[in-house]
Design a protein that fits this description.
By secondary structure, this protein is an alpha+beta fold. It folds into 3 domains: 33 residues; 135 residues, no CATH class; 138 residues, Cytochrome c-like domain (Cytochrome Bc1 Complex, Chain D, domain 2), CATH 1.10.760. The chain contains 12 helices and 5 strands. It has a 5-stranded antiparallel sheet with strand order 4-3-2-1-5.
């Protein structure tokens, strides 16, 4: 009798647990799938890549297998001048984001436009591709969608990268990996609350801003300011560079740790960075023994610091 009661109780618990998981996970997933992606959502997932955190293609969170975001004003195929365009370059073998692999998550209209007009199903991961975000405003409602420029315009990843200068190239996807790996979201949120936050940090994001992003980095605590629109509040690359190298250079009482180790061994000119000498000079500056702080070395273009700064400045 006791065994039978135990069996019935276990089954009832399993039924209750399964029902709660169905309500908690499956039903919201169906609602979210019906939400149409926004233009911001397309830009985010294309710049971040397939996964913005731990994944099997990047188990040690080094930022490999990520796209490069570029601003170009010359057609990579014809060489003719064109309106400045932001493109997302995926070299051969770089995993495509979820919106390319599964257009269903984009919402009905963006999915249809991405397939019919954007030819996203023609993109081949093994060959690489170049994507741009377009908006179809021919109807009553403006519909954002992804265009596979490799199929529609003949843009190849290598040729597209050749048309962008280093100053117009951004390693945003790699930068998000740094943001997650270094624990930035332990102290900063990416989701203003519905209070006075809106007045200071800006409007909160829309649900459609996150279609295809995996994972989000909302954060659960706030020891520092919200960073949702930080790139609009402060677009100075020099300020961000000093802030990450040593936050006390711009915020004397900051509790944020230094991230100077993200610079690596060399600066942008290939010179070895002497961290001990720099910190010794900074200690003299902090003790009011010198008037000016030491110069912060420019990060190399392939450094983790450069990528993290690219990511933060892209948060607009």
């Amino acid at each position: 009798m006791a065994f039978r009661e135990y069996t019935i109780g276990a089954r009832m618990f399993g039924l209750a647990f399964g029902t709660s998981m169905f309500i908690t996970l499956y039903m919201p997933a169906m609602d979210i799938r019906n939400v149409s992606v926004t233009e911001i959502g397309l830009e985010r997932q294309l710049s971040f890549g397939r996964v913005g955190g731990f994944s099997y293609e990047d188990p040690f969170l080094t930022g490999v297998a990520k796209p490069t975001t570029v601003d170009i004003s010359v057609d990579p195929n014809t060489g003719a001048p064109m309106e400045p365009t932001r493109a997302y370059v995926y070299p051969a073998g770089t995993p495509f984001p979820n919106g390319i692999r599964h257009p269903l998550i984009l919402g009905e209209k963006p999915k249809g436009a991405s397939i019919d007009k954007g030819k996203v199903l023609d993109a081949v991961e093994a060959q690489g591709a170049v994507f741009v975000v377009r908006v179809d405003d021919s109807g009553e409602e403006a519909v954002p969608y992804i265009e596979n420029a490799t199929a529609t315009r003949g843009w190849k990843p290598e040729a597209t990268m050749a048309k962008a200068s280093d100053a117009d190239s951004y390693h945003i996807g790699k930068g998000k990996i740094m943001f997650v790996r270094e624990g930035c979201w332990w102290c900063h949120t990416l989701l203003p609350e519905q209070t006075q936050d809106w007045q200071y940090f800006g409007a909160p994001p829309m649900l459609g801003d996150f279609n295809g992003e995996s994972p989000t980095a909302f954060g659960s605590d706030r020891k520092g300011p919200d960073l949702t629109h930080v790139g609009s509040r402060n677009s100075s690359r020099e300020w961000m560079m000093m802030h990450f190298f040593n936050p006390r250079l711009v915020q004397p009482h900051s509790i944020m740790p230094r991230y100077d180790y993200l610079w690596g061994d060399k600066d942008s000119g290939g010179n070895t960075i002497d961290f001990d000498a720099w910190r010794a000079q900074y200690d003299k500056y902090a003790a009011n023994e010198t008037v000016y702080p030491p110069e912060v070395p420019l990060p190399a273009k392939d450094s983790e610091a450069r990528a993290l700064i690219d990511f933060v400045l892209n948060l607009k």
